[in-house]
Amino acid sequence: MSLTRSARSTLLATPVMAVALSATPATVSAEPERFVLDESHISVGFLVGHARFADVLGQFTDVSGEFVYDSDSQTLERGEVEIAAASVFTGHDERDGHVRGGDFLETGEYPAIQFTANRYEAETETRGTLHGDLTIRGITQPIRLEATINRRADHPIGGADTLGASLRGSLMRSDYGMNYALEGDLVSDRIELIIEFEAMQQDS
Which of 96, 111, 124, 186 is most solvent-facing, going by the fewest CB within 10 Å? Predict the structure, then answer.
C-alpha cells in the first residue's frame, strides 16, 4: 500500500510530538511567595475572663512579621511574628501597667512575644489549621490556630497583591508562668485569641 506525501508527513510527525509532550511537565507549581504583614491592618486581640462576670477585651498595637506561602499547594514554608509586649492595651491605664508587670507579661525582662509558624494543615481551599510555637516570658509552648483565608486579590487601594486571613485560638496563661489570681477564676487561665491580618506579597 502506498502512502500519500501528507500521510507520510503525519506519521513522521507523531513520534516527534510524543517526545515533545513527554518533555513538558504535567503541572506547573508556583514558587512559594514571601508575604509581609501590613502593620496598619493587623489586629492581635485577646479575651480574658474577669471573675466569671464578663470578659476583658485587649490587644497588642505593635506587631510585625512575614511568612512564605505557596497558595497553589497551600503549603507554608515558614512564618515569624513579633509582638512588642509593652504595646498591650485594654482601655484602662492602671490595668495595662499591671499586665506589663511581673504578675503577667514582665515586659522589662521579656520585651517581645514571638510566634514561629511551622506548618499549615489545609482542610479546604479557605480553611485550615496553623501550627506553631509561641514564646511568652521566655517560655515556648506549641499552639494551633484555626485559620480562614478570606481573600487574595489586588488591593483596591494601591493595587498590591494582598492576602487576608482570620485566626482564632486559645492558650492557658499558666503554661507561660502567669499564675496571678487563678484562684476563684478572678482572672481566667484560658485566654481566647482573635487575630485578623492583611499581608502583602513581596517580589523578593
Answer: 124
110 within 8 A of 140, measured Cβ to Cβ: no
Are the CB atoms for 103 and 178 separated by under 8 Å?
A: yes
CB 105 within 8 A of CB 112: no
CATH number for the segment(s) 30-202:
2.40.128.110
**Exposure string (b/e) for 40-62, b if CB count within 10 Å is 16 or more?**
eebebebbbbeeeeeebebbbee
Mean pLDDT taken over the chain? 89
Instruction: Give the residue from 169, 168, 74 showing the smallest Cα distance to 121.
Output: 74
CA dihedral 175, 176, 177, 180 (to 10 degrees): -80
Whether 164 and 175 have beta carbons less than 8 Å apart is answered as: no
Strand 75-84 relative to strand 112-122, pairing: antiparallel
Query: Cell numbers of 11, please?
Result: 506519521
Using alpha carbons, select from 195, 186, 181, 141 the residue that is nearest to residue 49.
Answer: 186
Q: Where are the domains of the chain?
A: 30-202
pLDDT digits (tens, 9 = 90+) for 121-148: 999 999 999 999 999 999 999 999 999 9
Between CA 65 and CA 115 the distance in angstroms is: 9
